[in-house]
């Protein structure tokens, strides 16, 4: 058991798991959804959905992972009691492994852009202007994608306590420090007050808007890195004496906190940009979002505040690189854990081999960007992830024996049987979560 490695501390696991959940989507996806869906009304429904939907699925992954001490394929096969469910477990685990490889492939390209913009901002502080860094090109995309994946592989090759935990404990507090400093700075700029109003003043007429609810459910589910086995694999490294429901709640709270803090930074920053003459609305009147926001609106804002703008830009893109790295290491760990557990390949060899494999997939996307980039994102995040989340709920709610789940939870809490968690979670993950995820999937198809 110890040969697999374990997180050495509770805070180490929480920061690593929260780092997995905290990614680029928290920084650029959540704030724009807030602005487009009634400000604080969306924040309120997001908080509710995070605990009504995402937290129960998160717990399913953590419990399965710790119980079986294995990668996704072996863990799902291990909780199955008959041949049909074992085959389904292998198929689900294999799809999860394949999905996470393709997610990391496109994710590393975007993360490479963040590194390029970070270097650009840093060099601009010294009056060095290198246009190549911010111009879309195959050499630029390829170079920084490779650099980012090498960083990811380096961290994962170090193991659990000396690699993933060690760097998560350093990177996550740094992420929080940068985001808080930037919030304080932006809040004192002209125009920030309007942004705070857009973010915090609720439009309660929209609280029960079906589109808002669907967006809130989707953001809550996907922001916690669920469905592809990252939390299941991290769960397999948790010590036996930990209280899993409390541990899972801590991860959910940190992830939600980063998303809310990101909104406190991005929305006021957009209105500061508008005050400085930068266009923040599209022709249809919607707020500019996602890649246009990160690579056009905010750099244009930084450019309007001279030397201080370069410092702020450097800090902001450092934040984005950290958020990307804490997520990517958890993604790479999913297939690495499989090679280590099932094939007996050393961690360092597995890390190098899989880093190279992801590089090949990423390079294929880079050279065929127009045809593959959006297609890969759609297939993995819009279709594969919800289906995997649905099947994980079926395994936790219907395939795995209830007494086995209870016995696993008792390792960290002898009195779990009388708790509210045990009274609600088993039937909730059995009936409610699959129904809601199925509805979300239907809605995305429609």
TrEMBL record:
Superkingdom per UniProt: Bacteria
TM spans (from-to): 12-31, 43-64, 95-118, 138-157, 169-188, 216-235, 247-273, 293-325, 352-377, 383-400, 420-442
Gene Ontology terms: cellular component: membrane
NCBIfam families with a match to the protein in the record: Na_transp
SUPFAM superfamilies for this protein: SNF-like
Principal localisation: membrane
Organism: Brumicola blandensis
The protein's name in its UniProt record: Sodium-dependent transporter
Compartment list: Membrane
């Amino acid at each position: 058991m110890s040969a697999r490695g374990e997180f050495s501390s509770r805070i180490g696991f929480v920061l690593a798991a929260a780092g997995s959940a905290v990614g680029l989507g928290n920084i650029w996806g959540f704030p724009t959804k807030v602005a487009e869906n009634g400000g604080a009304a969306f924040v309120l429904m997001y908080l509710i959905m995070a605990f009504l939907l995402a937290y129960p699925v998160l717990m399913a992954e953590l419990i399965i992972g710790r119980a079986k001490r294995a990668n996704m394929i072996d863990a799902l096969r291990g909780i199955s009691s008959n041949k049909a469910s074992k085959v389904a477990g292998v198929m689900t685990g294999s799809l999860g492994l394949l999905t996470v490889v393709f997610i990391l492939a496109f994710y590393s390209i975007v993360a490479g852009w963040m590194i390029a913009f970070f270097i650009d901002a840093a060099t601009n502080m010294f009056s060095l202007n290198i246009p190549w860094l911010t111009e879309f090109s195959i050499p630029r995309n390829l170079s920084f994608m490779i650099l980012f994946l090498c960083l990811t592989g380096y961290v994962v090759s170090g193991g659990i306590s000396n690699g993933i935990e060690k760097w998560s404990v350093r990177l996550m507090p740094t992420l929080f420090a940068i985001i808080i400093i930037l919030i304080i700075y932006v809040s004192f700029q002209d125009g920030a007050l309007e942004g705070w109003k857009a973010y915090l003043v609720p439009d309660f007429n929209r609280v029960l808007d079906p589109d808002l609810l669907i967006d809130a459910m989707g953001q809550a589910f996907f922001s916690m890195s669920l469905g592809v086995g990252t939390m299941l694999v991290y769960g397999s490294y948790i010590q036996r004496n930990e209280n899993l429901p409390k541990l899972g709640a801590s991860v959910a709270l940190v992830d939600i906190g980063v998303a809310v803090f990101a909104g406190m930074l991005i929305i006021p920053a957009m209105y500061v940009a508008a005050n400085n003459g930068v266009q923040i609305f599209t022709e249809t009147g919607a707020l500019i979002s996602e890649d246009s926001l990160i690579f056009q609106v905010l750099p244009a804002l930084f450019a309007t505040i001279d030397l201080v703008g370069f410092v702020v830009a450097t800090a902001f893109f450092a934040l984005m690189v950290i958020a990307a790295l804490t997520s990517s290491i958890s993604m790479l760990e999913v297939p690495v854990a499989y090679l280590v557990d099932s094939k007996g390949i050393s961690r360092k060899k597995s890390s190098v081999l899989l880093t190279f494999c992801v590089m090949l997939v990423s390079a294929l996307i880079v050279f065929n960007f127009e045809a593959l980039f959006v297609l890969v994102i759609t297939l993995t995040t819009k279709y594969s992830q919800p289906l995997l989340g649905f099947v994980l709920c079926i395994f936790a709610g219907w395939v795995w024996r209830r007494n086995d789940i209870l016995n696993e939870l008792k390792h960290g809490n002898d009195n779990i049987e009388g708790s509210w968690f045990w009274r609600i979670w088993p039937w909730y993950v059995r009936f409610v979560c699959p129904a809601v995820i199925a509805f979300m999937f239907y809605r995305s198809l429609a």
